[in-house]
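Trying the structure run again after the queue cleared.
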Amino acid sequence: MKWLNKLERKIGNFYIRNLMLIIIFGNILVYGFTLLSGSPDLINKIFLEPSKVMEGEIWRLVTFIFVPETGSIISFIFAIYFNYLAGTGLEQEWGEFKFNFYYFVGMIATIIVSMVTRIPATGAYINLSLFLAFAMIYPNFQVLLFYIIPVKVKYLAIFNWILIGLNFIGYLSSFSIGGMLLTLVPVLNFFIFFGKEIVTGTRSNANNFKRQQKFKSQVKTIEIFHRCEVCGITEKDNPNMEFRYCSKCSGKKCYCINHIRDHEHK
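Done. Tokens:
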């Protein structure tokens, strides 16, 4: 991300401090108010509704990120926990400027797609992109699924990627261009940051695999003529190893260069 490093050097002082905590606090306030009032009126007034925005309710372009992702208390707590985990983890890894940039790219992409397709939206797609990024950086981080089952976040990320793929296919089969575009919002955000790393990593892994296969095929062609009586090493194990025969041992006893002078005569 050289381009982002250059951008940070130029305008790195312009960012919102503790952005993830602000978003989580906003989610908690909206959820608490909705729970106490027993009415979704507040949510209906703040989620991203393109037609309402065009009528002048421009606050929806910002407030939609504070809409809770679920109605169940347990599910809400679980979602808040994951969002906090992913957001603060990325802030620590990247710094607050880069985290702000990542979040606002997802936010702007969601707004553009929603306004173009006229499909309402919340911050769920952005939060999903946060989790995918977190799993990319900390794949072996372990969480308690349902507060009971320990599982590494990379497996949860794989599950989310499968869901994204299934949702995309579902929208594709129904010819819903808007649905497909909204599904791709977290993917777009993710690949802006990690696309080059994934491509170069895949290419590197493929080259390493080819070299390993070539080496294995070469090793298989080596015939074994020498085997050390002490350690059992052969020229197949180490083509550069030297072997000697001991004149004091009965029979034709072979030893590697490491044990020719340090062994019991047989």
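Residues 202-209 have pLDDT under 50 and may be disordered. Worth checking whether this holds up in the mutant runs.
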